[in-house]
Design goal:
Strand order of the largest sheet: 1-2
Shape: elongated
Number of helices: 4
Radius of gyration: 19 Å
Structural class: mainly alpha
Oligomer: single chain
Largest sheet: 2 strands, antiparallel
Length: 112
């Protein structure tokens, strides 16, 4: 599977003629931000692992805990998936009536 490129959907969002264009544009910007943040978090997790030792309690006993970046990644990936789904749900019907060889088809072909 090829890497998904949200930036390639920008022209598809710009071609939306309905009142959903501002919503789609906002969703796209948020999804791009999430994608960048997820990539940064993934680099940290890959380099440092999914767990870390933390001092707990008055005695400072070390306990293995989930890394804070991992918690952020897990929460953000769910939001990212929801954003992309909502964006796709808005773009798909809008573009079905237009050119069949648009960026959405290219985007779908990258996914599959």
């Amino acid at each position: 599977m090829k890497r998904m490129n949200l930036k390639s959907l920008k022209s598809s969002v710009e071609s939306i003629k309905s009142d959903k264009k501002p919503i789609a544009s906002s969703l796209l910007q948020q999804a791009i931000f999430c994608e960048k943040t997820l990539n940064k978090l993934k680099k940290i997790i890959d380099a440092e692992g999914t767990t870390c030792l933390m001092a707990i309690g008055k005695n400072g006993n070390l306990v293995e805990c989930e890394r804070p970046e991992m918690k952020s990644y897990n929460a953000l990936i769910k939001n990212y998936n929801a954003l992309v789904k909502n964006l796709y749900d808005i773009i798909e019907p809008e573009l079905e009536a237009t050119d069949p060889n648009d960026d959405l088809d290219k985007f779908n072909n990258e996914l599959y």
